[in-house]
Write a structure and sequence with these properties.
Layout (H helix, E strand, L loop, with lengths): L3 E6 L8 E6 L2 E5 L5 H11 L2 E6 L11 H8 L2 E4 L11 H6 L13 E2 L3 E6 L2 E7 L8 E5 L4 E3 L16 E3 L6 E2 H7 L1 H4 L1
Parallel strand pairs: 3-4, 4-5, 5-6, 10-11
Antiparallel strand pairs: 1-2, 2-3, 7-8, 8-9, 9-10, 11-12
Length: 189
């Protein structure tokens, strides 16, 4: 079985934590922010095959490249159905960042629901719904690697993850569950 790597990327313009998960030459992207052309250059330069795209929620700064990448590679991208109406809503914000607008005829995402999925051979993730920041917000937990990709802090408390769980937030610095328990107001209150 190939080595599995998780990499937090800050694609230009730097704003969002995107995550690239690779197993051998196969990969998936979580929160494909930025320009699709930049992602294509990166993937091609590394000889990676993009298999799917997963989106924590429907705000433009977490999916700006997803529809075009999905169309370019002929792959699926996943977003909870409650957030699909937000996809075109963010075009004015993409204008601010000088990023390409998402076209009206964008490739539709597949509905992302709660459950356990194999995203790459041998790589399983648990998804759970975290409405709040958006109606269709989702989080992704990789139990074998003890990594959590988060779109919402409040619901994580109920999951009771181990203190050493590594948390990649949508923006800003990564943290650990132990740190959140000791410092984040949702945990300490």
């Amino acid at each position: 079985m190939p080595e599995v790597k998780f990499e937090v990327l800050h694609m230009p313009p730097e704003n969002t934590n995107s995550v690239l998960v690779c197993s051998g030459d196969d990969c998936v992207i979580f929160d494909a922010w930025g320009r699709a052309s930049d992602w294509i250059k990166l993937l091609d330069s590394r000889g990676l095959r993009l298999r799917a795209i997963y989106t924590t929620h429907g705000h433009d700064d977490h999916l700006s490249a997803a529809p075009e990448l999905a169309r370019h590679y002929g792959i699926d991208w996943f977003l909870n159905e409650h957030d699909v109406p937000l996809v075109l809503w963010g075009n004015q914000i993409l204008d601010f960042w000088e990023l390409p607008r998402i076209p009206d005829d964008f490739k539709q995402p597949k509905n992302l629901t709660a459950g356990t999925f194999e995203i790459l051979p041998g790589v399983k993730m648990d998804t759970f719904e975290t409405p709040g920041h958006s109606l269709g917000g989702m989080c992704f937990y990789f139990p074998e690697y003890n990594i959590l990709l988060s779109a919402s802090i409040k619901k994580i408390i109920l999951k009771n993850y181990p203190d050493e769980t590594y948390v990649v937030h949508g923006h800003g610095a990564d943290s650990m569950i132990k740190w959140l328990k000791e410092n984040h107001p949702w945990f300490i209150n």
